[in-house]
């Protein structure tokens, strides 16, 4: 036996007699060899076809990539100087129009704000500016406020020597009376807003000042006067610093 280039084993008859040689007729050996070579040619043909298919697929892939690259390059078009200049002018024009619109809008907003301020100023004419405690200093007493309470100080004339039993104070939900026995009330009027009567208190400081503390019912509102007969305060000028800003709603802060 000898291994041929085909990878198949071929048997050649020897001179001595064998079953292979005896059993075959004339031309049997040639026929066998031709069959082997025929199988080899078919195997080579299939292998060659498969290689061509692989190469063909690779070539098609490369062709597809080249086509996509060419299409992409075609999309990128370089502008001429005239086209670039025209495009820049168009961009500048659009930018200028946007700037004009923004300036006009800003002017309109300023005009509206000025009108609102003028209107508010008209409403606030004649109102008093709050004191440092967001209240008011009047002839016979002084009061301050936070969002939660009112503090009232009523000075006693220096020529009077009084004690706590000489003080007359009456708290009602929306009425306050403060005075001295034997004298006309210093305060006797309707309060600007409701108070919690059970939380109100007073003391006599150094026999010279009556200090009154009243708790508000509505803790989200600035009082514009203590009693309704007092001059009105401009609550827009209130300084909320003595109170916690976090306790104020948007309208109260404004």
In short:
Helices cover 40% and strands 20% of the residues. The protein has 254 residues and is of the alpha+beta class.
- Cross-sheet strand order for the largest sheet: 3-4-5-10-9
> Which class of the domain at 136-236 in CATH terms?
Mainly Beta
Structural class: alpha+beta
| First-residue to last-residue Cα separation | 112 Å
Low-confidence runs: 1-6
Strand content: 15-25%
Work out the number of β strands: 10
Q: What does the average pLDDT come to?
A: 80
Summarize the biggest pleated sheet. 5 strands, antiparallel
According to CATH, the fold-level topology of the domain at 136-236 is Immunoglobulin-like
Give the CA-based shape.
Answer: elongated
Series of H and E elements: EEHHHEEEEEEEEH
User: What helical percentage do the residues reach?
Assistant: 25-40%
Number of helices: 4
Could you tell me the radius of gyration in angstroms? Answer: 55 Å
